[in-house]
Amino acid sequence: MRRRILLGSACALVLARPAVLRARGEDGPVDLLLVLAADVSRSMGEAEIALQRDGYAAALQHPMVVEAIRSGAHAAVAMTYVEWSSWQDQRVVVPWMRIAEGVAATAFGSALREAPPRVGDWTSISGAIRFAQDLLAAAPFEAERRVVDISGDGTNNHGGAVEEARDAAVAAGITINGLPILRAPRHVVGALPSAEALETHYREMVVGGAGAFVLPAEGLPAFASAIRRKLVLEIAAPRGDASSAA
Question: Which architecture characterizes domain 2-245 according to CATH?
Answer without folding.
Answer: 3-Layer(aba) Sandwich (3.40)
